[in-house]
Amino acid sequence: MSDYTQHRVQAGKLMLHYLEWGRGDRVLVCLHGTSMSANAWTRLARDLQNEFRVIALNMRGHGFSDAPETGYSVAEYGDDLLAFLDALQLEKVDLIGSSLGTQVAIDFASRHPELVKRIVLSDPSLAIDEAAIAGYVRLHETRARVFDTWEDAIGYCRSLPQRAKLSVEMHELAEAGDFKQLPDGRYEWCYYLPGILESFRKLTVDQWDQVKRIEAPVLVLRASTSHVLSKPNALKLEHELKHGTLYEVANSSHTIWGDQPALLSDITRRFLGGENVARNEVT
Fold first, then answer.
1. pLDDT tops 50 at residue 50
2. CATH code of domain 5-272
3. Count of helices and strands (H, E) across the chain
4. Of 59, 71, 223, 267, whose CB neighbour count within 10 A is largest?
5. CA–CA–CA angle 173, 176, 180 (5° rounding)
6. pLDDT at position 24
7. Pairing relationship of beta strands 52-58 and 93-98 according to DSSP bridges
8. In terms of Cα–Cα distance, which of 53, 82, 54, 77 is closest to 65?
């Protein structure tokens, strides 16, 4: 039996699916990366559920949320988040995002500062270059989509280079949201491929002016071996934020949530709790 509850809510024109843990007074909304799912946040949610009500959203085109044919820009994901918070009658929340989710958090916090308390950005992708995006597009266009058995599906998933550092536990937690079973018994990736490709192609939207408008305290986590956020861009992001702190995570790739889950839970708890998280650079 899972330790979360799952729900669907009408948010604007879309029905959005989400997972929920805990009953704390503070609400933490978790935003996953492109082609990922809400389940990637399970370890973090378990670790924080005594202090927070943790809500992990499956953004449009992901998991069991609606998948419109188009509309996968960062701003449109941000509009969905506003409709989602309104549907749940949430007045002010903390945000954590990974990859695409960081860009959605930046967009949302810049446009709706009154709704955001604190933000954790896990290896932000706002400065990703065209070469990295092209690589992701090729990966998804060539990725096997359907598998005859569950064993085939997770075997393929665990061969992906971006998940090379994940423990068995973290593989299993992510895989719970990675695939859906088809009527014929086979398994398929649980995301809408055309939407995901549109997302990748629109990631290079210039968000630096939005960064400057964010009022909330922000913790910027950069993976030490990130191929998405360069060191110069991480320093620029820290500088441009009104209340930004950079913390580089050692021994981690872009997938901090999977590579360093214990550290992510600890530093997120402390930062959201108002502690002064010491700035850290990996040498």
1. yes
2. 3.40.50.1820
3. 11, 11
4. 59
5. 160
6. 85
7. unpaired
8. 77
